[in-house]
Amino acid sequence: MIKNWLRNEYSLESPPIYISGWVFKDSSQFNKYLCDRVYAKLIDVEGQNEIKELLQDMASTGFLKQNLARVIEKNIEFEPWEIGEALAQCFLEDQFKIIFPWNTRRDARVLKASLPGADLVGFIVTENGIRFAFGEVKTSEDVNAPPKVMYGRSGMSFQLEKLKNDKSLRSQLFFWLGCRAKGAKWENQFKEAAIAYLNNDRNVFLYGILIRDTSPTLKDLESSGNSLVSGANSEIIIYLYAYYLPIPIQMWPDIIKTVGFE
After folding, report:
1. Does 73 reside within a domain?
2. CB 192: neighbour CB atoms within 10 A?
3. What is the pLDDT of residues 49-84, one digit of tens each?
4. C-alpha–C-alpha distance, residues 226 and 235, integer Å
5. Is residue 241 domain-resident?
6. Deepest of 49, 60, 66, 121, by most Cβ within 10 A of its Cβ?
7. How far is CA 128 from CA 14, 159, 192, 193, 201, in A?
8. Looking at the 3D structure of the chain, how many domains does it have?
9. DSSP sequence for 136-191
């Protein structure tokens, strides 16, 4: 369904770098996508349901069920960058069938934690089998092209360069996901991706996702693509995607809030 809502505005291929810009065409559909699909990702509905299932025999009375709901169903106000990261995961899952098996909100010790490490850790199904997919997400309403979030030590270009060239960083993501895989529904997917990685630690896919509320332009990604195409580990495939959305970023928290506090 989401493919009907997105229009490809530009594409540039310079293997192993692939660049695309996507416009979300309809503001009402985007609003609904935020309130349904993205909100469920933000509050980790899947994790909530797993806890309810785990405790269903214990929480047998209406009082206990009500208290359980109070504990796990929190009304949280989300920052634009948090919504942007959830949007990026939903877009990749729905448009390209990438799998993010572990919601990183489960690793937060406090509600508003900003966790270290890559923003995207999951799998992609390729014609050669399942492979690891790692990546970074940036959300920006900067009118400049490219926006400032692409540069500097906290910028997307630098972070993707590290993922591309730092084997120890990729291996740490392998370890982090592996610790959560045993007994999970996706254990076999991890094993298949792990075998491919252990045979060749460059056999991964990297993603850089830029979330925007500005007019689409190739300038947003082109220079980053040019810098990533050269250097070590040039065989690692990298996808740079920009998504241009019809509702201003600063409005997203209020839209999400109408769901969580209704």
Report:
1. no
2. 15
3. 887 777 877 766 766 777 777 666 666 789 999 999
4. 14
5. yes
6. 121
7. 21, 27, 11, 11, 15
8. 1
9. EEEEE---SSS-GGGSSTTSHHHHHHHHHH-HHHHHHHHHHHHTTTTTSTTHHHHH
Decide if 60 is inside a domain. Answer: no
Domain, as residue range, for 197: 2-43+79-260
Comparing C-alpha atoms, which of 18, 20, 17 is closest to residue 8?
A: 20
Tens of pLDDT, residues 94-122: 999 899 999 988 887 666 666 667 999 99
pLDDT in tens, 196-250: 999 999 999 999 999 999 999 999 999 999 888 876 567 899 999 999 999 999 9
For residue 123, the cross-strand partners are 99, 132
> What would the 3-class secondary structure string for 74-140 be?
CCCCCCHHHHHHHHHHHHHHHHHCCECCCCHHHHCCCCCCCCCCCCEEEEEEECCEEEEEEEEEEEE
Tokens for 251, please give them. 């409005």
Helix (H/G/I), strand (E/B), else coil: 11:
strand
Is residue 252 in a domain?
Answer: yes
Whole-structure pTM value:
0.91
Which amino acid is it at 156? M
